[in-house]
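Example (one chain per record):
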Amino acid sequence: MINIRKLEAELWESADLLRAGSKLTSNQYCMPVLGLIFLRYAYSRFKLVEAEILKDRPVRNGRVLPVEESDFASRSAIFLPREAQYAYLVDLPENISAAGLTNRNGQVMNSLGEAVNNAMELVEGQSEQLSGVLPKDYTMFSDELLAELLRIFNNSALDDVGGDVIGRIYEYFLNKFAKNIAQDDGVFFTPKSLVKMIVNILEPREGILLDPACGSGGMFVQTGDFVEHAGMLANNTMTFYGQEKVEYNAQLCLMNLAVHGLSGVIKSGDEANTFYHDAHNLDSCCDYVMANPPFNVDKVKSESAQSAGRLPFGFPSVNKNKEVGNANYLWISYFYAYLNEQGRAGFVMASSATDSQGKDKDIREQLVKTGHVDVMVSVGNNFFYTKSLPCSLWFFDKGKQEELRDKVLFIDARNYYTVVDRTLNEWSEWQLKNLNAIVWLYRGETDKYRALVDEYAETLASRDFPAVLAKLEEKKTQLNAQAKEEIAQAARKEKKMIEAAYAESMDGLEELIQTAKEALWLTEKFREGEYADILGLCKVATLEEIEAKGYSLTPGAYVGVAPTEDDGVDFHERMTEIHQELRSLQEESNRLMETISKNWEEMGL
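Predicted structure:
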């Protein structure tokens, strides 16, 4: 069984160590490294499909017929010429110039970088979707560094294509690069927990999906996972369209799709500037729209934006320079306009947009009155890699159930998250499921809620979640004591090994404890599966209630504040103690100052 987290960390540590030694910036290093991961994926998939083809390959004159390009095309895989195969590159001799190798144009190659560039060109020749996309700047690396990178990704664990290990590795590296490339401000990478929340609530099954600010394609990849988890083939049931103004990000997106075995139509450059172009002509055509657009964009040319259309509720405020000073409501209008009569949209937006005034408020009022605003979620700080600002998730549903047309579900999740480190928060898998469960209950889908409770019970081997948690906490205390005692008695050489073994056991135990806590969090609030407004967490508000609050869509305005738990400390008694402690400290400080002054006097200073 592959420890995927350990593998991710080891591969990143090795690759980043090389980057640091080469003095390349993360920005220079990002695309070439992701290109190598892609090439490794293509080779793993090539070998897997080749083996499947050879199982039933006809034999002529005692010889098995060789595999051909057409055999791979029918299986949605890329055929790799020998010079584009990863194993071929890994096994190349150290002295490339002496080997007499030629590229696809017949020119002699003098470095490993040239050989890798040639491999990328050969792959592009096999895939129209990848034409002009793959990195071909490997000659900036020394042969030694590039050979070491090829070796790092030649890990046998990466052959587990069925489990999409390489897809996870690609996303992990993309995530790490997003945090390191501060100047890009994390634009090309939407944190996975936000993407998962959007996909889980929209529940895409089949049809057209558009992301008009697609970045590195996380919405497409997660949708592919969701659809295939439901037992369907994403490439057969979904059609992916993307717009991305920054061509670098669009390249990452196309590679990301390819690494996950998906196909899509991605447009980039000026023609993909969503403010001025509907690049795919999808107005009113989409079953799903998902996006994380740039927040609070200014200087959008109003005349060009107006002529581009997709503005069902009118135009936001325009300044004296004939520019839109804040484009948030342009994006919001686009997302709504792209939907067909049953379409659903989910997107990330600056928190300020839920309550902004002026023409924004007029647009928001019209939007609310359609009855198509479905769910609003407040997200806390530190969910982005290079920003600490909070945000909101908006969800539209033009095919909403009739009984919900005059209602909106508000969820305030600002205080519900897992701390990853000092500057980053996320939702764990169980937390994502719990928040999703609130939406299920609001929609009346109690069977999905019960299935989740069953999943908790199966994972914890019990339905008595309070008792399970108590036992796990007790076991943790015992394990800590046992570890301390055993490590203290062990020989010096054995201490690290024992510490590592206990750390692994503690990690597994801690994971179960967190699972039990999340099971309790959910079932204590919603018991057997009845939706209820929970103070400080969720509220189903009617359109009349929203009108009474000036058409605000800020969840905190509706859910209220959760009561603070009594910590058992008497406030007045504790304040008296603190006052006495301060007074004691002040007296001690005075005595010290007197002693210091006296010493100085005795020294004649």
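Caption: The first strand starts at residue 59 and ends at 60.
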